[in-house]
Amino acid sequence: MIVKMKKLTLLSMASQQEETLEKLRELEVVHVEHVQKPEGEAIDAARQQLQTVHQAKDVLAAQKNEAKVDAPAKGDLVATVLELLNREKELKDQIQNLEHEHHRIAPFGDFDPTSIQQLIENGLFIKLYEVSKKAEPEVPEGVAIETIGENKHNRYILAVSQIDFSLSSTEVALPEQSLSEVEQALESTKEALKKSEEELATQAVHLKQIEKIAEEHSDALTYLEVQHGMGAEEVIVYLKGFYPAEREEDLIAAAQKNGWGYQLEEVADDDNPPTLLRNPKWVSPVKAVFQMIGVVPGYKELDVSALFLIFLSIFFAFIIGDAGYGLLFVALTLFGKMKSKGNKSAQIPLNLMLLMSAFCVVFGALTGNYFGIPIESLPAPLKMLTNSYMTGWNGSAWDTDLAANHIMFICFSIALVHLSIAHIWNIIRKINSPAALVDLGWLFCTWSLFTVVLNMVLYITLPALVQTIQLPLLGAGVLSIIIGLVLTKSYFGLVTLFLDVISNFVDIISYVRLYAVGAASLAIAQAFNGMAADIGFSGIGALGAAAILFAGHGLNIILGAMGVMVHGIRLNTLEFSSHAGVEWAGSPFNPFRKHKDEL
Q1: Domain residue spans of the chain
Q2: What is the DSSP annotation of 388-441?
Q3: DSSP class per residue in 118-141
């Protein structure tokens, strides 16, 4: 359910601005809309400080340290972390430079650059060269050369002369340090880096503390933005925003107690209030999906949370399609719930995973799919759980082609139900408006086009009655759409009507992706099972077979998860949402408050 919102204009004396904001923040009820763009040096400084704290927090979050500590960090924790981070970066740069220098001078061996520099100061010309063995250079008269190192392709020489000279080879600059000095410096710098990394890792025990610091800085920035975003008229300051209608009495009581002026209004058609979703507990797991993909329905749109959750679980079952995987997911999820007991934010996605995994187990059991093992190889109790329609059982054997057609029929039926719900829901909402005729027309078109899909894709011979009403139903749908568009003066819809009908047909067909991705997952599982079986499960070969099974099924699970993200979520947020008129154009309700507890 999308909670009803109302508009607020709150007035206060400028001298009481800070006190007013503190009281309003404690109330945690107003989603503030800035009257003017919040700007200023204080805000810029607060944003920079918050960015710095987040950088330090990210550094500590990346460290691995299981130690527990109760005492707070000494000194400025953020400054300490960033100082260690900068020091680590400097040491890594030094190591990179030293390794480059070592690689450059190592072929010439270990010598003292100081002694050579003294000879140069006394008038000698001394140079180092890298000489290709395939292209020996011509040595000028008066130049003495000495090979001091070589490899398969090059010689490394020292050239000396009393006059300046040049060889047609690659000259290498004289080093400032000897090879042994570079090696010593490299070793000591690596040791310093190790100590710095260890010291940084010890700071990871203060992650909770730095998270609290980040929250405090975030609250301070929000406060400044609200303060600088208020309007002002002489001695009066004011702010505007939205609040849940159910909290109106609390807001009025606070205003009267603190002497605030206020104006409460209903949301107008041109307003864009935030969206506050409040659903039954069993629907709450869908929050994890909305947060992950960063969408929320608009305030004036449908709340499809319950349908989204139900159909996403169905799509998950079809795409993963394996009861073995589902049972593995259930076990891992239950373990995760046990380990994160008391962590409310972790429980929501785990509950979502548990629900989808349960659907997956049921679907996999009905289709007889356990880690890609052939149905005929399953134990008798598991065979008994299968559904003959979904496995293509013809009384004596499992017909895979028949099963595929049946699964595709179920996919198209899901499309019919899913899209029909969208239009029926809209018809109920718009029942007193001519716009309801448009959705009624699309409902008729969806039913008619569903029969076309069955005939064209699955070659199903339709009953005579269905064939008789197929085209009249489509015509009635198109006529209803036209009448509705004309009455609502949505003339552009008339221009795109033909393409929209084609799009409706494609939307129904697109649900076959549930079968296609699931079938691909099954094929991958069976392929890796076959590879493992070819190696055998006896002797040393058993290790290789086990590795193939582990890697193959692990890869298959990853691909399945990607399939759910791409296809399962798409069918909800695109195909269904376009028919339901949900554009996901909302912004989440975020009241002015100090902490970020879940609503």
Answers
A1: 1-32+229-274+589-599, 111-177, 302-580
A2: HHHHTB-SSSB-HHHHHHHHHHHHHHHHHHHHHHHHHHHHHHTTTSTHHHHHHH
A3: HHHHTT-EEEEEEEETTSPPPPPT
Q: Which amino acid is at 167?
A: L
547-580 per-position pLDDT tens digit: 999 999 999 999 999 999 999 999 999 999 999 9
Strand residue runs (E) in 24-81: 31-33
Between CA 143 and CA 167 the distance in angstroms is 10
Q: Decide: helix, strand or coil at residue 352.
A: helix
> Which residues sit opposite 277 in a β-bridge?
2
Exposure string of 12-48, with b = 16+ CB inside 10 Å and e = fewer, is: beeeebeebbebbbebebbbbbebeebeeeebeebee
Compute the Cα dihedral for 548, 549, 550, 556 and give only its sign: positive
**Residue (of 319, 316, 304) closest to 352 by Cα position:** 316
d(CA 211, CA 261): 37
User: CA–CA separation, 301 vs 117, rounded Å?
Assistant: 80
**Cα Rg of the chain, angstroms:** 36
Residue 183: enclosing H or E segment and its boundaries?
helix 179-202
Which residue bears the tokens 């025990």?
Answer: 205
Sign of torsion over alpha carbons 407, 413, 415, 417: negative
CA distance 115 to 380: 87
Beta bridge partners of 244: 5
Looking at domain 1-32+229-274+589-599, which of 3.30.70.3270, 3.30.70.120, 1.10.10.10, 3.40.1360.10 is its CATH number?
3.30.70.120
Query: Structure tokens of 519?
Result: 């079938």
Contact predicate 156/107, CB 8 Å: yes
The answer to whether 24 and 11 are in contact (CB under 8 A) is no
Tens of pLDDT, residues 436-487: 999 999 999 999 999 999 999 999 988 999 889 999 999 999 999 999 999 9
- Give the predicted TM-score (pTM) of the model: 0.80
Contacts of 353 (CB under 8 A, 6+ apart): 329, 333
Burial 228-240 (b: 16+ CB within 10 A, else e): ebbeeeeeebbbb
Portion of the chain with pLDDT greater than 90, in percent: 80
For residue 345, what are its two tokens?
A: 């934010």
What is the SS3 string spanning 436-479? HHHHHHHHHHHHHHHHHHHHHHCCCCCCHHHHHHHHHHHHHHHH
Contact 236, 14 (CB under 8 A): yes
Cβ pair 372, 522 in contact under 8 A: yes
Q: What share of the chain is helix, strand, coil (3-state, %, to 5)?
A: 65, 10, 25
- The residue written with tokens 């798409």 in the block is 570
